[in-house]
């Protein structure tokens, strides 16, 4: 069975392209507040669950022991653009734990923020692992290794105690047995497991409410949420959806993952959500998640208005002429 169409790319008044997928908004009992498509099919949430990956580190006391600021905790949950401030904060984290860039096992790529890449090329600079969009998460994992008193070498492997702790946390939050699902390797080399959207949404509900968490985990989850909402720039960056929508609606916690995934929670309402576009299109998942969120009866009037601004997007050609738009499908808005 084909997934329902979530988003259409419209040109000349008709749908030129369509993006299919599924989503669920879950309450603390795992019941669907809103749902469309197959939410039982396992997907790789990838970077959308960086908050879950950071949780055991913070709950262990590592972040406090190394004096991580709220800005640094937010960067632990980031897929950042490699802008100047992102790199500065990552470097600060490494300095606090007594490591340097050589300790990273995330790999090198140019900053995702094109302007910064252009500046580096013009200056004859080369990218390092610290420019990797996951360098904040990896700094947190290095700190966790140090705090646990284990060797950091190989911290990205499933057998390392850091990743074992991450796996236990995901199992606890999402009510899944990761030994019975597909295990993949993420772009930054850490493990990633295939989990049904229903379970990912449940995980974010528990993350928001503290349900099924002990006192240390509950406090850590709260610390992550408040840090990210206080510093949304650290999570993504200039012109990025996660940063822009959390700046507009500060009570929202949202995070993108690769291949068209968006997840997050609405703490004040005790809700978690998870969404994936089948074709992996970020442009579509942004429109879809904005529509899903804007239709929930949990926002004040100002928040509703601001969310609505993200529910469509005009498309332009090279001469800046409007050629069409991205919009939600009838199935998503009915």
| CATH class label | Alpha Beta
Mean pLDDT metric: 97
**Largest sheet properties:** 8 strands, antiparallel
Given as residue ranges, the uncertain stretches (5+ residues, pLDDT < 50) are none
Helix count, per DSSP?
A: 14
Rg calc: 19 Å
State the distance separating the first and last CA atoms.
20 Å
Outline:
This protein has 334 residues and is an alpha+beta fold.
Protein model, in words:
With 334 residues, the protein is an alpha+beta fold. It has one domain (5-333): Beta-lactamase (3-Layer(aba) Sandwich), CATH 3.40.710. Helices cover 41% and strands 19% of the residues. It is built from 14 helices and twelve strands. It has helices at 50-59, 62-65, 70-76, 84-97, 114-122, 135-148, 161-174, 197-209, 215-230, 232-235, 241-248, 282-294, 301-308, 330-333, and strands spanning 5-11, 14-26, 32-36, 42-43, 183-185, 191-193, 195-196, 253-257, 261-266, 271-277, 313-316, 322-328. Strands 1, 2, 3, 8, 9, 10, 11 and 12 form an eight-stranded antiparallel beta sheet that branches. A hairpin with a 5-residue loop joins strand 5 and strand 6 (191-193). Helix 3 (70-76) crosses helix 9. The longest helix has 16 residues, at 215-230. It starts with a strand and ends with a helix. 50% of the residues are buried. The model has no long low-confidence stretch (mean pLDDT 97).
How are the SSEs placed, and which strands pair?
Elements (H helix, E strand, L loop, with lengths): L4 E7 L2 E13 L5 E5 L5 E2 L6 H10 L2 H4 L4 H7 L7 H14 L16 H9 L12 H14 L12 H14 L8 E3 L5 E3 L1 E2 H13 L5 H16 L1 H4 L5 H8 L4 E5 L3 E6 L4 E7 L4 H13 L6 H8 L4 E4 L5 E7 L1 H4 L1
Antiparallel strand pairs: 1-2, 1-12, 2-3, 2-10, 4-7, 5-6, 8-9, 9-10, 11-12
Helix pairs in contact: 1-6, 1-7, 1-9, 3-6, 3-9, 4-6, 7-8, 12-13
């Amino acid at each position: 069975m084909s997934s329902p169409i979530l988003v259409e790319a419209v040109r000349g008044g008709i749908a030129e392209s369509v993006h299919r997928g599924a989503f669920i908004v879950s309450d603390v009992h795992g019941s669907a507040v809103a749902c469309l498509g197959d939410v039982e099919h396992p997907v790789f949430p990838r970077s959308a669950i960086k908050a879950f990956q950071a949780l055991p580190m913070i709950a262990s006391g590592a972040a406090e022991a190394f004096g991580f600021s709220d800005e640094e905790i937010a960067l632990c949950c980031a897929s950042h653009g490699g802008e100047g401030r992102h790199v500065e904060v990552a470097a600060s984290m490494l300095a606090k734990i007594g490591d340097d860039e050589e300790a990273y096992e995330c790999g090198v790529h140019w900053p995702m923020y094109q302007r910064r890449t252009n500046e580096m090329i013009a200056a004859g600079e080369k990218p390092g692992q610290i420019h990797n969009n996951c360098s904040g998460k990896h700094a947190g994992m290095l700190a966790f290794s140090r705090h646990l008193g284990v060797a950091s070498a190989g911290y990205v492997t499933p057998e390392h105690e850091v990743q074992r702790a991450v796996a236990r946390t995901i199992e606890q939050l999402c009510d899944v047995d990761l030994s019975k699902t597909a295990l993949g390797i993420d772009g930054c080399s850490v493990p990633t497991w295939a989990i049904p959207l229903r379970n990912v949404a449940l995980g974010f509900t528990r993350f928001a409410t503290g349900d099924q968490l002990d006192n240390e985990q509950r406090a850590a989850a709260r610390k992550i949420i408040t840090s990210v909402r206080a510093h949304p720039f650290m999570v993504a960056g200039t012109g990025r959806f996660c940063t822009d929508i959390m700046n507009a609606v500060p009570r929202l916690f949202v995070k993108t993952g690769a291949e068209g995934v968006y997840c997050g929670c609405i703490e004040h309402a005790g809700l978690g959500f998870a969404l994936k576009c089948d074709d992996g299109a970020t442009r579509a998942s942004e429109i879809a998640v904005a529509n899903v969120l804007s239709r929930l009866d949990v926002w004040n009037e100002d928040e509703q208005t601001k969310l609505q601004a993200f529910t469509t997007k005009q498309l332009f050609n090279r001469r800046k002429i409007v050629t069409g738009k991205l919009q939600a499908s009838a199935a998503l808005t009915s």
